[in-house]
Design goal:
With about 270 residues, this protein is α+β, with helices and mostly antiparallel strands. The chain contains 11 helices and 9 strands.
């Protein structure tokens, strides 16, 4: 069971990561000093210490930046491990089902999280302790109950949005839900009750990218994640993204990315 837990120190948070990176396990990053910025599921987040970032399986991280003053740690656990804790469904929904959660927290919360991290780290180095697995499970259970309580009263980082920004946000949600089968701007414009031209103009003003840019970015980022993080064949990726053929998918990918899917996958092997 302890093999389902990975602890990350400040210097190893980015070690071995290749972007875009698809999150496979519940990943919590605690920022104790400096600033942490990332682009996840096409949203940019920036946190200043003290803060907590919680990434969930299935999300795609395109980039992570740590400033020179950054200090913190991470805890990564598998679905098998969280299942073994038998947490209430209501708590699991708050922690593990909602979208990525980024929170500013108090120094006291950081102290609690740091204490849990240190205790777990110490127990991981005690192979002769017959009770360490149960102790670690209880520590994580208490940790998640506490984190759920903190999150209940905290506000996510993004500030209040204008009506136009809210519409852009709705567009982003729609694209994230439908990009595998819907690449036509008209589909999203209809859902938002605006014209395709207005939608693209609005997005360009707010984000610097048009509706088509965002749709293509979602499709290609997902494809790149599959090419870099899975053993799926190019045909399987093409089918997953509902292209009529591998050839059409290849041309689409190359137009956006500047190289074919095969060339992209080969470029990763040479890094």
């Amino acid at each position: 069971m302890l093999q389902d837990i990975e602890l990350l120190e400040s210097g190893s948070i980015l070690k071995g990561l290749r972007f875009p990176h698809k999150i496979k396990k519940v990943t919590q990053i605690v920022i104790t000093a400096g600033q942490f910025s990332c682009l996840v599921d096409f949203r940019m987040w920036s946190l200043k210490a003290p803060a907590v970032a919680l990434f969930l399986p299935g999300q795609v991280v395109e980039s992570i930046d740590l400033d020179e003053d950054f200090s913190g740690f991470g805890m990564v656990v598998s679905q098998n491990f969280t299942d073994s804790l038998n947490l209430p469904v209501s708590l699991q929904e708050r922690l593990f089902i909602k979208d990525t959660q980024f929170y500013s927290v108090s120094p006291e919360v950081i102290d609690v999280l740091t204490s849990v991290y240190r205790q777990v780290s110490s127990l991981m180095k005690q192979p002769d302790n017959p009770y360490r697995e149960e102790i670690v499970k209880h520590l994580f259970s208490a940790h998640y109950y506490g984190l759920g309580y903190y999150m209940h009263g905290l506000q996510s980082q993004p500030s209040a949005m204008t009506a136009q920004q809210e519409k852009c946000e709705r567009f982003m949600v729609l694209v994230a839900e439908n990009f595998k089968t819907q690449r036509d701007i008209g589909f999203y414009a209809d859902k938002l009750c605006v014209t395709s031209k207005y939608l693209s103009t609005m997005l360009k003003q707010e984000t610097g990218m048009t509706a088509l840019d965002w749709i293509e970015k979602h499709v290609v980022l997902y494809a790149k994640s599959c090419l870099s993080s899975t053993s799926m064949t190019i045909q399987e990726i093409s089918d997953e993204l509902d292209f009529p053929s591998q050839s059409v998918f290849g041309k689409y990918f190359k137009r956006v990315e500047g190289m074919s899917p095969k060339a992209y996958r080969q470029s990763l092997k040479s890094e």
